[in-house]
Amino acid sequence: MATKSKKPTHEAFVVSGEGESAFWTKIGAVWSHDDGKGFNVDLIALPVNGRLVIRERKESKES
């Protein structure tokens, strides 16, 4: 089982709408398993509508 001490590899969003007018709300973080065969998902909310989207985490450009 992957530990949460490392940074998440992905982020979870609920997305409402389409295209340029889509509204993305971050609702959690995702950690890949060490063997690369699955994920642990930690959500702070459960979507009641829209799509659940998992995207690779972008590293911040802060130095």
Order of helices and strands: EEEE
Distance between the termini: 31 Å
Note the beta-strand portion.
Answer: 35-45%
Share of helical residues: under 10%
Largest sheet: 4 strands, antiparallel
- What's the average pLDDT? 88
Tell me the structural class: mainly beta
Strand order of the largest sheet: 3-2-1-4
Question: What gyration radius follows from the Cα positions, in whole Å?
Answer: 13 Å
- Globular, elongated, flat, extended or rod-shaped: what is the shape? globular
Number of helical regions: 0
> How many beta-strand runs?
4
Would you identify the regions where 5 or more consecutive residues have pLDDT less than 50?
A: none
Description of the structure:
By secondary structure, the protein is an all-beta fold. The chain has a domain at 10-52. 0% of the residues lie in helices and 44% in strands. The protein contains no helices and 4 strands. The chain has strands at residues 10-16, 23-32, 39-43, 51-56. A 4-stranded antiparallel beta sheet has the order 3-2-1-4, with no helix packed on it. The radius of gyration is 13 Å and the shape is globular. The mean pLDDT is 88.
